[in-house]
Fold each of these.
Amino acid sequence: MTLNQRTRWKILSPVPGQYVEASGVPDLVAQLLYNRGVDLEQVEPFLAADDRLEGNPFLLPDVSQAVGRIYKAVLGREKVAVYGDFDVDGVTAAATVAEGLSRLGAEPIIYIPDRFDEGHGLNAGAIEKLHASGAELVVTVDCGVTDVAEVRRASELGMDVIITDHHVPSQSLPRAVAVVDPKRSDSRYPHPDLSGAGVAFKLVQALFHKDRRERWLSGLMDLVALATITDMSPMVGENRYLVREGLKELNSTARPGIQQMVSVAGLRSGELDSDDISWVLGPRLNSAGRLDSASTSYRLLTTGSSEEARQLAEELEGRNAERQRLSSEVLERARQRLAAKAHLPLLMECDESCSVGVIGPVAGRLLDEFYKPVVMVSVGPELCKGSCRSIVEFDMVSALEKCRDLLTAFGGHALAAGFTVRLENLTRLEDSLMGLARDRLGHLDLRPEITVDAEVPLSTFTGEAFGLIERLSPFGRGNPKPTFVTRKVEVIECRNFGSHSEWLRLKLRQGNVTWRAVDFASQRKAKEVPRLVDIAFNLERSHWNGEEVLGLNLRDFSASTG
């Protein structure tokens, strides 16, 4: 039976012998490090992921000004507001700065904007509310670096603003007391890819520099790990140290909210890893801001009451289930409508009945299925809000920039962005984005590409191989889980499973080596699978008949040839 690859397999070149010899690590680890561009002098710090990767917070732009202004506010008993965002990064960053201010004796006002009424970033209405509440200083987290007009409004009202953010600034910075952002063009900070909570943590670290209370900072790293992983920040440089230490803190956290969320979600404290954050904890924390108010997640992370924590954890569990249900409905409706448009270079779906809170995840699912830029739009009577997910071949923010005259607001990254557009401009926006996609993608064979670390036999993974691979963890963007290809593998068992029999469970053999495998990606039927296959896979822990075992997670497979 002919069964073709769904993806292109880009197999990286073998590691040079001199790199292996100089690195002092086993061949397999050397190959993985070489593939990730780790210089020889960085091999040991990369694997250790210890505080040698940590950056000096005072190298961040304007951090000294921020520290000075905060101490002035604390000593003068000024009211200080912390302005966050409604996703995990924004909520954890707000909690981080708020706990730091509380340690200094302040009683901060917490303001988290509403996704539906206010959107991302500072807004004039919120600034005026904070002024009315008596705030004299506003500290933003995970937002603000492009909000020039809003910072000007705060200044007109007599309020100072400190911005902490990790997004790319515009050409002109807001005229704030301090703009602490490692992505500023004049930044000397060696690790520009911190999450918003990571930048917030560095500000608090600077506030407590050489203070006898500095040890307390480790108790914030669980928040930073939640943000860094959920926000898909690159898992390189300082982020490796923050996440590794944060996972340790998370697994022994004293926060009742996290303890209860872990319990309600069916996880086990002490065994949490990056995948648990990505697939279980992160979505639950995000669900509050997607359907209602992110303040529920903030309260969960900061409450000292086990009883309140249990109630909030159960509330998030229910909201997450509702989010999944709504996402499934919107996804199925979008699939049906887009079936006739599958030939187009960009897929745009406008829906009056879908919630702004689910269009982002749905766009991501559609991108995975079609491998084309996807724009999901929640249509309102006057304003429409869009969420975009894109492929490496199409920079979405660059495309939105070219449509700036049609938009009331936009922002984000090359692969994930959002915008607001007036209803009367929606059709023109779709035409413009489609034209840009035709120009940039029309000549390309669009298929996702899997980067393969090495082509190896299955016998490679006997003994200590998995332990060697785990030395590179935590994995994430910039340091992906190692992917391997093995040819001519015999399928000795194969059956579908899942609620719609959409997944595959297999037993594979090569020589005298046998492995269990699962396939969550291909949507193939067991009867389509030939006896001999070539497989691209990750090696992962999995649960089989109630026991934890090592298994293969197939990313793609095809019929063996020759």
Amino acid sequence: MPTVLDQDLAPDQYEIIVVLDGPDEETARWLKSLPAVEPLLRVVEQAHRGLAAARNTGLREARAETVLLLDDDLMCSRRLVRRHAEAARDNLIAMGAVPVSSDSPRAIAAQWVRRSVEARTLRLATIGPQWPVDIALCANYSAPRKLLLSCGGFDETFVGACEEFDLGIRARKAGAQFRYLPDAVASEIYVKTAQAMVRRDCPARGANEVRLCRKHPEFRPVSALSRFNQGAWTTRTLRYAAARAPFSLEPVLAPAFRASEALTRLGVGEKIAFRLLDFRRGSALYRGAVREAGSWPSFRGEFCATLPVLLYHHVGPRQPGAYPFLTLSYAKFERQMRWLRQRGYTAIRSADWISWKRGAGALPRKPVLITFDDGYADLVQYALPVLKDYGLTATIFIPTRCIGKTNEWDDGTWALLPLMNRAQIREWAAQGIEFGSHTRTHPDLTTVSRERLKDEIEESARELESITGSRPVAFAYPYGCFSDEVRDCVSRVFDLSFTTREGINCLGDDPFLLHRLEILPNDNLATFAMFLAWGSRPLTALRKRMAIRSRLQAAVRRLPRPHSVSPSDVKITRRIGT
């Protein structure tokens, strides 16, 4: 409080409204006893209703056109209020830095928050406010009072977390712009314990994230819950176990954390302590979300669905001169489709995936997306009838200028083979097959001019729509090649796009850089099953790792002589290669 009173503004240029949310007679007496602060300071008391209600009371009581939100654990710089006042504009929400004060305890919880805040401050100073992490109207944010009231203020049904994100999203929809003020600093004295973070804050955050995503479906792909299926397989496995277990893992995790925290005072174990705290926080957050969702199946269906996307080219007999690794035999393709049906997979279209990401539709228990690049005519004879027999659908990516012609982009390299014609595309589109764009002429989009890039993408969408009668929503990058510019151009026309990078897709993945699993002629059913389950070929990954190790060892052997490889070189080689 003293630092808020000690601002480099005259007392008549700003006001301080302190809202006491719940009975606190001692604090109220102390505030009212402060000398010479009227009318600068006003104290408003109310029954305990939560942070959102307290902030709404402050908004209603304020007389100024711009309001600055502060918490009671902040130490404000003398220019804080002036800096926010100078930045005030219609529809502008300004945010300042909130570093963790050096007066905070040296506990792991405070250190964890300090690292997080330092990373955020660096990002804000480098690239500015980003959606969604910086749109929360919390401490050291200022905004036009009229804007916040016109948005309805804070939603008081959010108790314990996410009310600041909810209002930020609504303000953003109303046209608000966000700006970072690096010299508007309010340091936080962080005294919260790890126990309080894990037992109270994180479960409340998880539950309210579910409610926030249901209220604002566009927040789903960027919420903390969307990252449930991201990370290494070991991390994902532990995450699943912690979220699904009928009991909390805290009785085991808390003592282990306390032991590691004690070791940090001796200068060791800090990395383990941070990892344990991360895992405890994540476990508590996801368990809170599962409870709010109603059950694990409900939470999984709403936030944790994964999508393997299969990539094929040719199906049928291998054609003389054709690229040998792109043709799958009819027998193998039929076995794979039968295997999918027997194992309970349901084929969806790319439009179904984007609908689920937006919260507008549900997915089957085990979804799979089957895609074909280039639209070769052999699909009509060999692949599409199999899909129809097994009740499966697919998405075919077409280079529109080559419809009814051949794979002209391979001229001089591989055999030219016929592609689907307009009549075939219309016929199978009427039977539920989805068609997406593969540009007009199948170029490497990273090598073309900006004008041609725009033409290849926009015109292919128009040409495909003129054939199928519906706007295409999906795009596949030719050769799997893309850049930031290519991705941005695609995102202005389509709803999602596919690369050739291996992996399985989840809610938090970039919809314009989706992974696919390319099925090769020598893949057997065991490899096919592992591919679908893990998103990569284990043997291929092992061979790549061994190849990298071999190259590193060869590079070490080529190091300048006369002295031999040092022990440190060998350690580096082992660490990188394993």
Amino acid sequence: MAESSSQPREMKGPARLRGRSGAKARDAKKTAKRLLGYLRPYRWRLSAIMLFLIINAAAGAAGSMFLQILIDDYIEPLLLTASPVFTGLLRAISIMACIYLSGILSNFLMQRLMIKVSQGVLRDVRDQMFSKMQRFPLRYFDSNSHGDIMSHYTNDTDTLRQFISQTIPQLCSSAITVVVVLGCMIYRSPLLTLIVLLFMAYMLFMTGKIGSNSAKYFIKQQRSLGAVNGFIEEMINGQKVVKVFCREDISKEQFDELNDELRYNSFKAFSFSNITMPVMMSAGNLQYVVLAIAGGAMALAGTGGLTLGGLVSFLQLSRSFSMPINQVSQQVSAVAVALAGAERIFDLMDEQPEQDDGKITLVNVRNDNGVMTECDERTGTWAWKRMTDAGPEYTELRGSIVIKDVDFSYVPDKPVLRDISLYAEPGQKVAFVGSTGAGKTTITNLINRFYDISAGSITYDGIDISEICKSDLRRSLGIVLQDVNLFTGTVMENIRYGRLDATDEEVIAAAKLANAHGFIRRLPKGYDTVLSGDGSGLSQGQRQLIAIARCAVADPPVMILDEATSSIDTRTERIVQRGMDSLMHGRTVFVIAHRLSTVQNSDVIMVLEQGRIIERGSHDALIAQHGRYYQLYTGAFELE
């Protein structure tokens, strides 16, 4: 849009990253609690998962405990028998196999259920994010990188997937296993259990030290990744500009700086994360040696009731006890990353939605001798509906817009519009001309309430637009922009986007009105031709005609044409102009144009400069004044 330069934009490149990458999670406990709240709808599945985790932990502990019976009651006696009979041993091995198989089966079922839960939660989070995002004001998208917004749906949600499907089960499984195995170890040998607990205290201390550093850099990594994604998205969209001005090397340097920042944060994060396991494994191996020596001495001395089988069983239990601690240490970084991602997602969800205090709605009516009656079917006659104590009051929608003494600024203390006053009667064509940044597009943004005014008033059919529901206000306005957005789908679906209940016949009629029917019929499948890549297979003029047809099928009483022909050639402009002239007939129209030839037939032309209207009148009247419009028209047929 022409006024985009006036709107606040987020810092680009290294400055933006330095401003954000160092942020830490503000309230990890609150974020975790909120995240776990998404699991409540799946509580029955989670109960089943917990049951399977208990079975799996019990099976592992039972298998380790059974080792003593296997060695003391079956293997050791067989070693002292001349003619051993293996029937009992095979029976014991079969029992042991059944124990472990029950653990394997419960683990399999747990994983299946956890996948369903995690994917369900991610669906809920994405749905809520997208739903919230639809209610954000335009200001949010002006001030945030689109790539960074996209990273909420990709990188941040992926960290949640890993957290829910892997980290939570690991932590729960580890906690259950530790409790079960600890009980078994105490039962086997309290003295050896004390040795294990001392080693565990050391291992947890080291995990905490390493994990805190790892978590800090994982949070920085997540934010750096969002900045890199934002820069890449920006460069893809602006690739033509980059090449035209030969800025490939500069762009590469900026990307390298962002990428180096991401590499550094990732390196530090994984450096701390990856040394955790070697430290834990070393401590675990040392623990195993100490237990073997101490336990062997106890078994040989016959103290503590420890047998050879009991020692083997305890060593196996100690492994089972250490392994969950190791897994917890590995998951510390995953928890930090997930909480960082969740915090970014919740930051998006907590953004202030677009405020709408309007109570007046737009309804279809029948007008019988001046008496308006609301109806459900589309009649072509609209009215503003206001609820009062006496019942509904209807004001016919005519398309009269009055702007009085309006001031506006995107950023406080930096006014963009000053003391703007104008009116547009039903059926009039009002044109805005002026230099880039003069405030032309900003005025139309205020009419459809993409932004709210700082002072003054805007009325629509005598009603202050702040009293009208935003969705109903915008439904009465049709907008054709310079930059056309086409969606993946057929030509028919793209035109019908203007009114989803439009029939095929109405869509074709709108295309004919917009002068688009001829070229659409020549497409490979006509109206059923699938467009992709924002209509990349069409010319700029064809894309513009589809946009006009989309507006035509909505049949709005007021239209805004924002630089709709500035990027197409003169011949195509005449075709597009004929389509727009048909569409504008009988409607209130606001036109923003750089080509003055497109606004000569306007009822009134407003000349803006630095946020003020400096001239107004018809084409002939302005030419006669020999003012700014005259200079623009006679000096060059294009604006500066």
Amino acid sequence: MSHRIAALVTGPRSAVLVALVPFLLALVLIGAVGEADRADRSTDSLPAGLDSTEGTALLDRLPEDVSTAAIVLFTAKDGELSGVQLTALRDAAGDLGSRGGTPAGEQASPLVPSEDGTAALLAIPVPSGSATEVADTVKELRTAADEAAPDGVEAQVTGPAAVQADLAAVFDGANTRLLLVTALVVAVLLVITYRSPVLWLVPLAVVGIADRLAAVLATQVMAAVDVAWDESTVGILSVLVFGAGTDYALLLISRYRDELRTEESRYQAMAHALRRTAEAVIASATTVVLGLLTLLLSLTPTTRGLGLACAVGVVVAATFALAVLPAALVLFGRWVFWPRVPHVGETVMVESGTVWHKIGERVARRPGTVITGSLLLLAVMAIGLFRIDLGLDQAEQFLDEPEAISAATRLAESFPAGTADPTQVVTTGSPEKVLDAVRSVEGVTSARVSDSGNGVSVIDAVLSGRSGENTDTVEALRDAVAPYDAHVTGSEAEAIDEREGSDRDLRLIVPLILVLVLGGLVLLLRSAVAPVLLVLTVVATYAAAMGASWWLFTGPLGFGAMDSGVPLFAFLFLVALGVDYNIFLVTRAREESAGHGSRDGMLRALSATGGVITSAGILLAAVFAVLGVLPLVVLAQLGTIICLGVLLDTLLVRTLLVPAIAMRLGDRFWWPRQVG
């Protein structure tokens, strides 16, 4: 950042304007414009061009009064359903069908008892609509079913409509809870870091406004360019803005505190701190933004939306950290650091015997041993990487199992497993021929034409396998109906295609991220050796975090598999954010090496940045762990991997491994650049 810009941001006269004008403009935009709305599309979360996505798109051509299914399951609490109980349930079936808001021309099925006599089901068409409308209908149906169930009979509602309703309930107020918990975690960690009753309020207020502004700008940008987003997008955006914004704030404030020990004027001190911090923050933010924008190459629309939204968020966070925060801080005197107020003449951190300086000295004595031990530990942790199973079925998507899932599990004990969620074959050809082809496939228990209109017909196929066990049957279905211009969709087919889409995204986007990060480091450091080594350490951290997390998932957390989208998101966030800390360390090391040589320069850099980077890493890890507030397995898994990876990167890789490599190589670490 140039001297003129730094002087403008931190000047005695201009600081008030720089601090207040963006702040007020942000408040106006947040209040007057707000977050954008967008009508959801049925294919928003499906990978483009794959079979289930094409089938789902064809479903949109059906008449507007098309319905989804809710299945009321009645089970005997003890033994089998009696004749009296079955009679009462048959008498109630008509009333329950009307409670579902059955569309014109469609009727609820008759009550179907199971062969084992312990259960009976009633399929009720529910008008398709918004998630809120379907949720309200399912809620009313559940109340009516409970009232209709005779003594000794339990009523539950499952089926696609109930799953949609329960998924909507997961996100009901979830983003607000996530924001509040994130802000609370950041506030607590800032108080612990600064040990001041006042200072933490300034960065928290700045980052908080940046977060709300980022949500408004990101959704407005996505709406303007017609990029999809879903319920979790704004929540993940908030986590990233709070994490990255607070990291940038910690780095700036740490440098500002150091400058206050050598400079009487707080305005000059902030100008010096800003100039020396800006390069690292801008390089870090640029790396993260470029990495996030690679998600625009994803096949899945909501993944593209997440990348664009988070890129906007990081730009906003970095802008507020480099403009609004410095101006806001200089409006206060040194007293804002109370009770640990920095004074001119105090020892600067790089010259003191801090714990980080002592760690650096130990690393410098035996860098080879530290390198070997660190790499061995990472390798052991990464072993689980080769055991990972990808792909969660519908029953495994929720941390707390909702009624729709538990009822589907119980239904599969007495009826064919696919009854609650039939696989759909959608065709523009002859429905009779497609129906015959579907019935000929092994693993299909029953099939019927369930809907037609506007040249599109739908065949519901009940599969015999449980959820997640029908891959071969779905593939056989696709082969059987391929000659009839038909597509296979439904949750089973969508899960198969999501895995295929995620695999394609992983193979395309991961190498691109590595190239972008490596190129950014080469431009920043003007070195050929250091960037390659830094990228390799971050990749090793990712492998270790994935491997160790897999043991956590299959052990204490009890997950059967990893969501197919998690590896890509975890790689993106860990590599982009992990490089941040290396950038903070090596840019300071390069600065110190100019006057003290490579070895002492790295030692002084570790002493100077150790505390702030460790605080930033712990804070970022805690913030991503907050994703567990949303009761979806995919977000819990993502939060766990990033939390563990950031801690590894902060406490092991950046503290021990990178300094050891730099000290072992000496000037060769910076080759071909000369730093001494």
